[in-house]
Amino acid sequence: MSAIEFATNCHLLPETSVPLRPGTAQQHHAGTGVCVPQALDLAAEVPVALVFNGISHAVMMVTPQDLAEFAVGFALSEGVVEQAHECRDVQVLQQGSGTPDESCAVHVEIPPRQFMRLKERRRALVGRTGCGVCGIDSLQALDLHPAPMATPDWCARLDAARVLRPFATLGQCQVLNVRAGSLHAAGWATPEGELTDVLEDVGRHNALDKLLGRLALAGRLGEPGFVVMTSRTSYELVRKCARLQVPALATISAPTTLALQLAREAGMQLWGLCRPPTALRYV
């Protein structure tokens, strides 16, 4: 199915929620005692329910922007569906915009076979936290053994210069973070290191799902390239990328031992501490 055909299957309602909200603070200067009032922007963080075939299966705390992309990326990276075209009739609904009770729901229709499989997993897909395991009811449900992927030829040419190139512009491409200072970014870079897409969220895994969903909606998931992120390399980021056959992941901070273990099993190139002029490739 082409990207155009896929788009006709997704009825996207316009998102009216605002990802940044006005706030106030006092800037205190050490040693001088000067206190300067400031008006500033704060990142919104609202509960977003992911509803498959009319039943809510996950509630995440998300920056309310790019929610259709987020839902599609989540469905793919969590194994709810196997192909992007299995997400149909995506609708973003919102209530209480700008109030303390604001919330959103993203409704997605998936085929009966995938829906039955989702129910049989016998777990509530509760939003991931820093530990990445909340809502999982058994050790077996962790899914810590990704299938190995084929390594594309261009990965052999992926060196520090190409890996660091997108990080040189990633910060200035974070439109929301420039104003609020509290959002992670997930970016997509070509094999030569050209940054093509940047998605933002208060949660690192949410930002990655938004990016993967953006690529899926555009029919670009299989194109050559790698993911760059402004976070540590946690195991769930590696697992999401491995499930969607992303051959390389580069992050600003270091990986955990579990993240490195999963990357090795998947055959994924893992780069960390990507801070020009150096980057570490973990072997």
TrEMBL record:
Gene3D superfamilies: 3.10.20.10, Cytidine Deaminase, domain 2. It is found in: Cytoplasm. The keyword Oxidoreductase does not apply. The active site is at C131. One of its GO terms (molecular function) is sulfur carrier activity. It comes from the Bacteria. One of its GO terms (biological process) is Mo-molybdopterin cofactor biosynthetic process. Keywords: Cytoplasm, Molybdenum cofactor biosynthesis. Coiled coil: none annotated. It holds the Pfam family FdhD-NarQ. GO terms for cellular component: cytoplasm. Required for formate dehydrogenase (FDH) activity. Acts as a sulfur carrier protein that transfers sulfur from IscS to the molybdenum cofactor prior to its insertion into FDH. Belongs to the FdhD family. This is Sulfur carrier protein FdhD. The lineage of its organism: Bacteria, Pseudomonadati, Pseudomonadota, Betaproteobacteria, Burkholderiales. The gene is fdhD.
